[in-house]
Design brief:
There is one protein chain. The protein is mainly alpha-helical. Helices cover 77% and strands 0% of the residues. It is built from eight helices and no strands. The chain has helices at residues 3-19, 25-51, 63-84, 92-107, 116-141, 145-162, 167-175, 178-193. It is globular.
């Protein structure tokens, strides 16, 4: 997708958030996610009108109306993703593209290539995760026995927070070679323990 379209999704999300800036953040989040459901209701209305299912109203919509409403659902969902991500650099379209490829791979209709986002996540991993992991391990080795268990668990929890990235990234880390294989396997084991695909 063009960069202009990706940036436009963020701009639209910011626009909606700014118009509701006086609202409680949780209420705004619920409304942003609820907008997806509202738009889905409009799809159903358009479908009823296209099929002429309501005998009192008859045929009131076209196939194009249904398609436009479906796209409104998609746009509302992408905007909600951007809202959840803090309206920073565009992420929703890349996440959607990655999701499409993962679902297609699971269905057996496409191979799962290493996406641009997975490459970016791998680079982020190299820059951020590795130094923190070594620091966490160094801290663990310096602990006295009385507090070792608690601090070991806390260091592990902090390390796991750093790797809450896409599962494709963990698979990519395994494929990258010996230097990242051990860490990649740790990531895959973490996701498996968390019940992620």
């Amino acid at each position: 997708m063009r960069q202009e379209a990706k940036a436009a999704v963020v701009a639209l999300s910011k626009w909606v958030d700014e118009a509701n800036s006086r609202r409680d953040p949780e209420a705004l989040l619920r409304e942003r996610l609820g907008k997806v459901t509202e738009e889905n209701g409009e799809v159903q209305t358009a479908l009823t009108g296209w099929l002429g299912s309501n005998p009192r109203k008859g045929f009131t919509h076209t196939k194009q109306d249904v398609i436009e409403e479906l796209l409104d659902v998609a746009l509302a969902a992408l905007g909600a993703v951007e809202h959840v991500h803090g309206n920073g650099p565009p992420v929703s379209v890349d996440l959607l593209e990655d999701k499409i490829l993962r679902v297609a791979a699971r269905a057996g209709v496409a191979e799962q290539p290493l996406t641009e986002m997975a490459v970016h996540q791998l680079d982020t991993f190299r820059r951020q995760w590795t130094p923190h992991r070594h620091e966490a391990l160094a801290n663990i080795s310096a602990l006295d026995d009385a507090s070792a268990d608690w601090q070991r668990a806390e260091a592990d929890r902090q390390a796991k927070l750093l790797v809450r990235v896409h599962p494709t990234f963990a698979a990519a880390a395994v494929k990258e070679g010996p230097a990242l294989t051990r860490v990649g396997h740790e990531l895959l084991a973490f996701w498996k323990a968390e019940g992620r695909p």
